[in-house]
Amino acid sequence: MSKSPNLILPALGGTTLVLGLAYGLSSRDYAADRIEQLETRIHQVEGHASSANEKLSMEAERATQLELQIAEVQAAAAERLASGSNLTAPAPVTEVGYGLGRPALEEEIAAWDVDILPDGRGLPEGSGDVWTGEEVFVAKCASCHGDFAEGVDNWPVLAGGFDTLADEDPVKTVGSYWPHLSTAWDYIYRSMPFGEAGTLTPDETYAIVAYILYSNDMVDDDFELSHENFTEVEMHNSDGFVVDDRPELEYAEWRAEPCMSDCKEQVDITMRSVFLVETPIEGGSNSVMNHAAGEELPSFTVDGPSFIPVSAPEPVEEEAEAEVVEASTEADDGAALAAAGEKLFKRCSSCHQVGAGATNRSGPQLNGIIGRTIGGVDGFRYSNVFKAAADEGRVWDDESLAAFIADPRGYFAGTKMAFRGLPSEEDQMALIAYLEAAGE
């Protein structure tokens, strides 16, 4: 039996009423959230608009200022033009400063005041010994100046050259020419190594300078250079420079009013330069003899040179002879081996001499070295290891000389010779062959 409709209808009506109330409440909450979002957005837009107005006002004020400045400059220019003054004339000197900059701090002055004076002023604290200097020199300097400061290609020689300053072609080195040790220290510290200037520490610089002094045989192998004993080092050419007094004593006698009349109609070249300086592609410079004769040079008039010399064709360079030549019993091969050794000897020539008139330099002369007592050259100051070998009566032969050339430090620990050695047996044989041929 079904339920009466009179019972179902009231229940449906109550449900409908509850649903309607719920919908109304949810609609009201949504509207409130939406209103809050819109209000927040309005505040943001108003803030952006206010910021934009401020920027616009600042730009307008800046534009007004620039227009006033332009007008002032134009007015000043017009006034100067009207008064006849030059727009490019220097600004007037005023007694009042411009208010630019500030006095330099002592630390800033010290950073620029880095020059080293001969009396040691400006030297930083530090020290470096000869053997440390050798290691640093080989790593940072030898590629240009050689393992023992003998110079490579056209790069400067730093050692040797003593008593050559009066020669036609003097050898000017730190040892033979420079009057002050501070010059070497200052230049090395600020400008070396090439391409890496300013990377050396004070201790490394002291060590390099000590090694250069040692390479010039000016100090012993146990020497250590420091800011404390720097001024005690006496340079070989310290008295070779004088104050230039020519402006006071000579220039006045030479000067006279120039003659500006009766000039020659033709000028002839009567002398020529003895040497010409070439600049190789690889850098440096190379002095070559100038073989031009007087008749090969033009004369000059107001119309120009009498002729234009034709440059001589460049000589065809022959292929470089191999430095290492295999030893042979044949005479031609022996001569070639000695010739290769002569090229190798260039690495030794800054310290040693061989042949007629050879004398002791920073190393002993090498005439008759095969069969000679080790450390036996009279008048040369040998290191202790050579003195001990001389006391033992040891003699140079091909085997011992080759071993020494291969590794001087390894063969004679404590030797003063700073050469790293020739590891190639063929180079050793070639050098010995040359010493035997040239030192007979």
Characterise the protein shown here.
It is built from 13 helices and seven strands. It is mainly α. It is extended, with a radius of gyration of 44 Å. It starts with a helix and ends with a helix. The relative contact order is 0.07. The model is unreliable at 1-5 and 318-329 (pLDDT under 50).
Q: Could you give a quick summary of the protein structure above?
A:
By secondary structure, the protein is mainly α.
Give the topology.
Elements: H1 5-83, H2 106-112, E1 127-129, H3 130-140, H4 142-145, H5 181-191, H6 202-215, E2 224-226, H7 246-249, H8 251-254, E3 267-268, E4 275-278, E5 286-289, E6 299-301, E7 304-305, H9 331-345, H10 384-392, H11 398-406, H12 408-411, H13 425-438
Antiparallel strand pairs: 1-2, 3-6, 4-5, 6-7
Number of helices: 13
Structural class: mainly alpha
What multimeric state do the chains show? Answer: single chain
Q: What is the spatial order of strands in the main beta sheet?
A: 3-6-7
Which range best describes the helical content: under 10%, 10-25%, 25-40%, 40-55%, 55-70% or over 70%? 40-55%
Radius of gyration: 44 Å
Topology, number of strands: 7
Average pLDDT taken over every residue: 79
Main beta sheet: 3 strands, antiparallel
**Which descriptor suits the 3D outline?**
extended
Uncertain runs are 1-5, 318-329
Q: Tell me the β content.
A: under 5%
Distance between the termini: 150 Å
In N-to-C order, the SSE pattern is HHEHHHHEHHEEEEEHHHHH
